[in-house]
Write a structure and sequence with these properties.
By secondary structure, this protein is of the alpha/beta class. It has helices at 30-37, 100-104, 123-131, 151-158, 174-200, and strands spanning 16-24, 43-48, 67-80, 83-89, 109-114, 136-141, 166-169. Strand 3 (67-80) and strand 4 form a beta hairpin.
């Protein structure tokens, strides 16, 4: 399809663009997730981990990690010809949380990535979106060698509301990530519809 025209006499499609945040703890796979699905070369703001950051960057469980996002990751994926998602990966460390308010402005919803080896690392992201009434989905990134737990057990450990979706995923796999993103869009639309209904009654 070319801009402003459509193939085979179809009327032009007005594309809808939506902003999705990808959040979670340090080393949970946010940069990997954005890179797995982005149809453009992802914008990354990664820097090497340094000795100066060692006291504040807890690498236990992710000892092989040598870089960290210091601003954001950015990518784009077209789910349909009329629906494009812009993905913004947030930095995971506490010292960069001041950027979250800016990044969350205008977002439809969010993915909170979780690692069962360091589940407590995603508490801050869950709390952030709950407090700001931003609809989110929890994606449990299934790392190789990590223990697998039933989704209900992870849900209870995170103390999630019943209406918050929780899915198992592989942040390296394009199709797995696409399903997560579709889930976020569906959840956010249902959340918005329910909110409108509550306001109108």
């Amino acid at each position: 399809m070319t801009f402003g025209r459509s193939e085979r006499g179809k009327p032009p499609v007005e594309p809808v663009t939506l902003k999705i945040l990808v959040a979670g703890g340090f080393g949970v796979g946010k940069t990997t997730l954005v890179g797995a699905v982005s149809e453009i070369r992802p914008l990354r703001t990664e820097e090497l981990l340094t000795e100066a950051g060692r006291p504040v960057d807890d690498t236990s469980g992710v000892e092989g990690k040598h870089t960290t996002t210091v601003a954001m990751d950015f990518g784009r994926i077209t789910l349909r010809e009329d629906l494009t998602l812009y993905l913004f990966g947030t930095p995971g460390q506490e010292r960069f949380w001041f950027m979250w308010d800016e990044l969350s402005e205008g977002s439809l919803g969010a993915v909170v990535l979780a690692d069962t080896r360091r589940l407590e690392d995603c508490f801050a992201a869950v709390d952030y979106f709950e407090r700001r009434s931003i609809p989110f989905l929890v994606g449990v990134n299934c790392f190789e060698g990590a223990a697998r737990y039933p989704a209900d057990d992870v849900r209870r450990a995170l103390d999630l509301d019943d209406d918050v979706p929780l899915v198992l995923c592989d942040a390296r796999d394009r199709e797995s990530v696409k399903e997560v993103l579709i889930g976020v869009v569906r959840h956010a639309m249902a959340y918005a519809a329910a909110h409108r209904q509550t306001v109108s009654t």
